[in-house]
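Re-run requested by the PI after the first attempt was lost when the workstation crashed. Everything re-entered from the original request form. Ligand of interest: C6P.
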Amino acid sequence: MSEFDVDRIREDFPILGTKPNGKPLVFLDSASTSQKPRQVIKAVNDYYENYNSNIHRGLYSISMKSTDAYIKSKELAAKLINAESYRNIVYCRNTTDAINIIALSYAEPLIKQGDRILITDMEHHSNIVPWLMLARRKKAVLEHAALVDKSFIDMDDFRKKLENKPKIVAFTHASNVLGTINDVKTMTKLAHDAGATVIVDAAQSVPHMPIDVKEIDCDFMAFSSHKMLGPSGIGVLYGKEELLEETTPAIVGSDMIRSVTFESADWNELPWKFESGTPNIEGAIGLGAAIEYLNRIGLGRIRQHEMDTVKYALKRIGETEGMNVYGPGSKDVHRKGGVISFNISGAHPHDVSTIFDTEGIAIRAGHHCAMPLVNGILGQAAVSRMSFYLYTKQEEIDKALDAVEKVKRVLRLDKKR
Ligand code: C6P
């Protein structure tokens, strides 16, 4: 196998050659959204320039071409996560949308007064609020499994809460704040043994590591194209066929219908019955190109590169005074994705981010849409976060650590200590 050549990979990403503040862009915010390679941009352009047309509707050649490209994209998405077929792949807007679709269509009729829904303390708002609203509508109970060491799901607490027989158990595969990679296979098995339906939020895992839904055995999985080199506005809801079959769609109209009269309507076959209205065709085509790109590089190698990057970053941070890191440390790097949240003693994360920006370095600062975790468990109003991807270079970590020193100088933190 050829060497993992980051410089060669970076050539495919036009934006990485730009200088937003007169300084080369150091993009350390891929957990928020990833950059896009030329191959994805070209695939989207090619659709618009050469065969822009609606899918499933036209009996003319360019419409058939766009339909074929749309289905090919779904086949690639299915293969990426080892789903049985493209019938298991529903395209929607993003991870948030996918989880809402499950909550509003599958879970809505299932959950009754007094039922329990179990999530965890490290969830993103997208995997909290749809369940919170459902619990409120049904007078059900939303429970959340605790963490140990402010880093890992407390499996004893998870098991204990499963004794209450929740009907829905939903958890993230990888935390967007801590970086923690959860043992979703074991969690799914435990939840199934307790009789629950399992939803995995894979927004931060599918882009970064090999995933096998058959091995995990989850019932539903959600992820977003924009975090995996693809366009925004398109996301994936994977579902087991029998569950998708038995679910009545919540959003109806247009092509998701087989037949309609003024008295009744019945649904199209899978996966179309969950895709009402004209879908994001260019997004699907771009996502297909993104998956082909990821396959060419290899997700196993991307995961290894990110682990090496995290290891290096944690070592450099360990040598730097005044930095607090959240989530698993160096000894647990095999359980941590390419995400490092940190604070610099005495500096507000918004100031940190602004000062980093003067050096061309993009990081995210705030609650990262995980307020119960950041404000509650970590006890912070906000944290700064660097996140990595296949194009991240070690010298970019060095630049970030130089920027930490600049933060200390600008805010005169050394004098305050
Ligand atoms: N996290 C971040 O900067 P959407 O926005 O629907 O594509 O993804 C939502 C989502 C769901 N689950 C997890 C674990 C996530 O990390 C995200 C998105 C971004 O961390 C934007 S808040």
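Saved to the shared folder this time. The chain is about 40% helix and 15% strand.
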